[in-house]
Amino acid sequence: MTLKHVLAIAVYFLVLGLGAGNRLGYPQEIVSAASWELFVTTPPTQTEQSNVLGTATTWGETILPLLPDMTLAHVNKTNALPTSYVPVGLAQIEGSLAIGIQYLRADVLPYFYQLVGAASEAGYNLLALSAYRSYATQAATFNYWVSQSGYSAAAAGSARPGHSEHQLGTTVDLALQQNREFAYFTTSSAAGWVAHNAHRFGFVVSYPQGKQAITGYIWEPWHVRWVGVELAKNLHQQELTLEEYLSSL
Fold first, then answer.
1. Which UniProt keywords are given for this protein, alphabetically ordered (predicted)?
2. What was the pLDDT predicted at 79?
């Protein structure tokens, strides 16, 4: 990892830590928001804004249909969530285990707490640095990285709005209490512990090391997504990425 990447990650942490990525207020105020003004890198045409569920847009991406259970929604660089999608049942993560106000789906919270508890027993004090993000928040986040690093570099480490697993409410970026920077987490033994133990609680590292050609994203040892204990264990045993599994369905 180059010094430029380390500095970029540090700045990203600073932005999130100051609350730029988590302007959520209170649970009852969480509403869908789609503002193309935030996504200024490529202003879409009227046709591109249509978001017809299950069809391809003029960008070549597919807007995923809404299902009763979106846990295994195949969100990636070509499949997008609708701009208006907000998961049902978001609940706030306990304040001592999160940086700022963070939300996950209520049914995922117990598994997150189990993960954090097991990590603590192993000597790692984990925190939720960033969990649920709305479409509009992801647009602002992605646009920030484009302004800092250019489109190609930004796309390697940040999802375009609609393409972020964080919008599902089942995904969380982890950090360590003693040093909350991603660069520190990456070089710490906590990254290895998460990679080898997250599956016990239903989480997978979505973008593991050495899999960029498959996932489209750089290694993010802090980025975990809940998919259920049984599937997470199977993927871990078979050494498969979530992207490979979902692509095979």
1. Carboxypeptidase, Hydrolase, Protease
2. 96
